[in-house]
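User: Sorry, folds how?
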Amino acid sequence: MIRALIVAAIYALAYYYLKWNELLIAMVFSVLYFAIKRSFRHLFMPPAVYYLLVPIAKQLNFPLPNEIILLLFSLALLRVDFGKYQSFSIATSVILLLLSGFFLKDKLPFGNYFFLLIVALTAVIFVTVLLPELSGKLEFLRNLRGTVLLLSFAIVIYSSLRDLIPLPPMRDFADWIVVSLLVLKTVSAIRSEIVEEELIKEVRRFEGDVERINNAERLFLDFGVKDRLIFSLSEVLFKSGFNSEEVAEILKPLIYYSDRKIPKYAFSWEKKRIERANRKRREEVINEIKRRMEEIR
């Protein structure tokens, strides 16, 4: 709220000196933007920016098309969190973005190039925002946003410069080079992303195995429960490439281990002594398993 009051004061001061009626409209939307905490506040920013730019554009003899506000609104829509309706809002934003580019194409200098930039931006949003939102299997595309953005704008720049190449054969040769580079870059980026995803899954599986073994080892050391440790170690050893004979040899001390029994009606000092001795023997079993693993490896 303090920021909203500061913004209102700045606008009021600017209006006092400049007498721009558009500043009052911009002030209302700006104050709403800074006063509201929820994400839908971003929808108030497009009209605030538009009505702030209109008088400036008039001073520069550059009339600002009304469709600019549609462009700003489509971008603002991407920043709003709609929860389970997020994919619908992203699709709406993509459609509005394309419409704004189409309408502005004939109203701005270099409108065709501007429309190409809008198409490139739309492609980036569609591939790296909308598709992952529609399918969890395409989640890796979010991490390719930088690559897709680079490739999209590279295509726009090349399309703008292509006509400067004098001879048709040279243009065709340049087309093949650009297409080949783009395909190689795309395939490389996707492959590295898939490899990284698989590596992360492997690391998580390994971390899960390590945690399971550590828990089973503590259970064995503290209470003498060996079944879980035998199962966890067997699973990990087989995954690591050990055959059944090697696994049996490694786990032999654990399989044949048994605690010394605590006699009935034992004295407390007697019970503690046997428990200490059992724990020491369990530790020796663990150390022996590790030693055998190193020898067989």
Residues 168-223 form the longest helix (56 residues). The CA atoms of residues 242 and 297 lie 9 Å apart. The mean pLDDT is 76.
